[in-house]
Amino acid sequence: MNEYGQHPYYMVVEDDEGNSHSVLLYTSNAMEYSTFLLDDGTPALTLRTIGGIIDIHVFLGPTPEETNVQYATMMGYPAFPPYWSLGFHLSRWGYNSTTGVREARERMKAMGIPQDVQTMDIDYMYRQRDFTYDPTNWADMPDLIQELHNDNLRVTLILDPALVIDFDNYPPAQRGKDADVFIKWSDKALVPADQEPGTDDYMVGYVWPDNKTIFPDFLNPDAQAWWINELKLFHDILAYDSIWIDMNEPANFGTNLDKPWNWPPELEPWSLKCPDNALDSPPYPTKMIRVGDNNSNKISDHTICMSANQTDGTTTYLHYDVHSLYGWSETVATFQGLLEIFPGTRPVVLSRSTFPGSGQYAVHWLGDNSADWEHMHMSIVGMLDFNMFGLPMVGADVCGFFNEPDMEMCARWMELGAFYPFSRNHNTLGMQDQDPGVWPEVGAISRDTLLLRYKYLPFLYSLFHKAHMHGNSVVRPLLNVFPNDLTARDVDDQFFWGSSLMIAPVITQGATSRDVYFPEGLWYELRYGVLTATGPITQTVNAPMEFIPLFIRGGAILPWQEPAENTELSKMNAYGLTMALDATGTASGEIFWDGGDGEHVMSEAYMSHLNFAANALNMTIMHGETAVSGLNLETISIYGYPSDPTTITVNGDATGVSWFFDNVIKVLEVYLNVPLSQNFIINFN
Q1: What is the pLDDT of residues 261-277, one digit of tens each?
Q2: What is the bridge-based pairing of β-strands 363-365 and 394-395?
């Protein structure tokens, strides 16, 4: 099928030691691929493209994670998301009014479920027109946004690329026409005989609005300037904080069919029809015309015709050649627009369509899934894929977009979704509400699991910093952490935050336990510090409905903060450390903080290294002490500590230090009050 995006990039694990390389076929033309085995059992892959140039890049690793870093180094390191965007996002298509949003928000507050972002889909618009809001059901939308801001929530609004051709009554389209920013037919002779008056040689289609539409050419600098201006004008009307761009492949309904599925029944049938030429009926049109839901048997299925022109201001391109750049180009323009609206901050642009390099600008969700256990499993694979593609800020629609989940599925999906880098619950029009407050059981489970996410956001944030600075993956398959572990290669239902925190969600209906593969090392249960396994071993662990199995790897130190109902509150709370000792009694980690937003200046950001060895914890500050002014370290939990100490001192002073030692599970809890802005040595005797 015609997919949301195109990432013609693959990795090969070459041998039992984990030596790996990866390959990018860098083209924006139509492609297909197939995987198969040779006669001797060797895995093989074929990539076919029907245009562009042969531009192949090979990344030599030699480890799986190093191939990802090398790829990101070439394509551009991922954007550094603001801290608030790592909080929980709530969304749906079908709130239908400001009342629907307020009711969902009140359910969240009543259950004490953390939330940082409220998102609105196209039902807030007037007749599904960009840069408008419904004056009837959403008449008090500016007031709603202010209420959400008063609750420390940010607001994300959706925009689609296609604009209606109602030039006389729709100023954004008229301003776009005045600037000549819309995609055109490549030859005026191709303009249909029934072209609407006033649309000149623009390619006209049909999407969500109840009128025909035209499509901005975001490669065009004039279109970029027009789009940025429209974003600014829109922000003057609705004070949004981030933008979600959807349908940006670009999608078009009913291409080459009798009429779109949502065409007004009172009108004569019509649709965008593509010419029968070498661009829209190429000699090899790729397999997508023969499989999937392609009713037209044309390469332009669900999108606009390939016989269109686009321009970057100096060079004219056929849409046939640059189709897969459409979503990327809209993302770049939107990112730049938000930079101008919110100077000195980090834009958040959520995009459905992506391309190699999109990670420099985009947050991504995995598209229209269903409330289905298999889709829940697939979301783990998709999340790992996009980390490989250099888009680490990724997640799926929690609890499913289509269909309706039952209580158990939504509870389990909320547990998994709490550990997506981009965590958002979203569903479609006509379905029952599925925000976690709908079910008391799901609400309680969501509250506890999201509070755990919020607790460890300082660790997740530091992983995004590494991704932004060095190209590292944020979430990783076991393969990337243990490349020479042959069993780890086959595990696709567990994953890591970084290389220290392993998540093993329950994705099977009715299950109250699951098998977990523990690679080499010591593995402690994250919440309570019980030593669960010494790997390598596969072990069955209990996982009742309210419990997602989480494990910290021996040798790791994870920073955390006391959680709260949003990041505006939690980021001011006291810090703690979770230390898991390895077999040699050592552990290491780091703390990073830069305020959570704004231009990243490494020399001004706080960075400290933590090292525990020989019964002493050393914290060495590298730079940025002022960034953590007023923040203190108040709790240290040490997992696998051998015995109850007799004294604990901070820089030689025992004043203000207390502790509790659990001899049964070998966990030492230390309570103190030490400024993060000062180096320290904590001795345990």
Answers
A1: 999 999 999 999 999 99
A2: parallel
- Sign, Cα dihedral of 672, 676, 680, 685: positive
The residue ranges of DSSP E strands in 396-500, in sequence order, are 397-398, 424-425, 475-476, 495-497
Question: Three-state SS for 384?
Answer: helix
pLDDT at 2 over 90: no
**Is position 249 annotated as part of the catalytic site?**
yes
Are 677 and 628 in contact, with CB atoms under 8 Å apart? yes
156, 242 Cβ separation under 8 angstroms: yes
Number of C-beta neighbours around residue 124 at 10 A: 23
Single pTM value for the model? 0.98
Categorize the per-residue pLDDT at 293 as very low, low, confident or very high, splitting at 50, 70 and 90: confident
Structure tokens at 445: 């489970």
State phi, psi for 119 to the nearest 5 degrees.
-115, 140
User: 20-52 burial string, b = 16+ CB within 10 Å, else e?
Assistant: bbbbbbbbbbbbeeeeeeeeeeeeeeeeebbbb
CA-CA distance, 305 to 254, in Å (whole number)?
Answer: 12
Task: Phi first, then psi: give them for residue 364, nearest 5 degrees.
Answer: -140, 140
pLDDT digits (tens, 9 = 90+) for 211-235: 999 999 999 999 999 999 999 999 9
Active-site hit among 123, 249, 280, 435? 249
The C-alpha atoms of residue 255 and residue 304 are separated, in whole angstroms, by 7
Residue 360 sits at φ, ψ, to 5 deg, of -65, -15
Percent of the chain topping pLDDT 90:
98
| Cα dihedral 626, 628, 634, 636 sign | negative
Q: Count CB neighbours of 132 within 10 A.
A: 18
Residue 1 has pLDDT above 80, yes or no: no
- The answer to whether residues 445 and 558 touch, using CB atoms and an 8 Å cutoff, is no
The tokens of 287 are what?
Answer: 């397999």
Q: Of residues 65, 246, 280, 525, which has the active-site annotation?
A: 246
134 belongs to the catalytic site: no
Query: Which segments of 113-236 are extended strands (E)?
Result: 117-120, 154-159, 163-164, 184-185, 213-214
Average pLDDT, whole number, for the chain?
97
How many residues comprise the chain? Answer: 685
CA separation, residue 549 to residues 236, 438, 557 (Å): 46, 24, 19
Tell me how far the alpha carbon of residue 458 is from its chain's centroid. Answer: 17
Of 17, 31, 22, 47, whose CA–CA distance to 471 is shortest? 22
How far is 43 from 39, CA to CA, in rounded Å? 9
CA dist 319 and 297 (Å) reads 19
The set of residues, in sequence order, having a beta carbon less than 8 Å from that of 629 and lying 6+ positions away, is 677
Give the residue among 157, 28, 19 at the shortest CA–CA distance from 89: 157
Reduced 3-state DSSP string for 626-674: HHHCCCEEEEEEEECCCCCCCCEEECCECCCCEEEEECCCCEEEEEEEE
Three-class DSSP category at 402? strand
State the pLDDT at residue 291: 80
Q: From the DSSP assignment, how many helices (H) and strands (E) are in the chain?
A: 13, 35
Is the pLDDT confidence value at 453 over 80?
yes
User: Going along 324-432, which residue ranges are E strands?
Assistant: 349-351, 363-365, 394-395, 397-398, 424-425
- Half-sphere exposure for 402 (CA within 13 Å, toward CB): 6
C-beta of residue 186 within 8 angstroms of C-beta of residue 307? yes
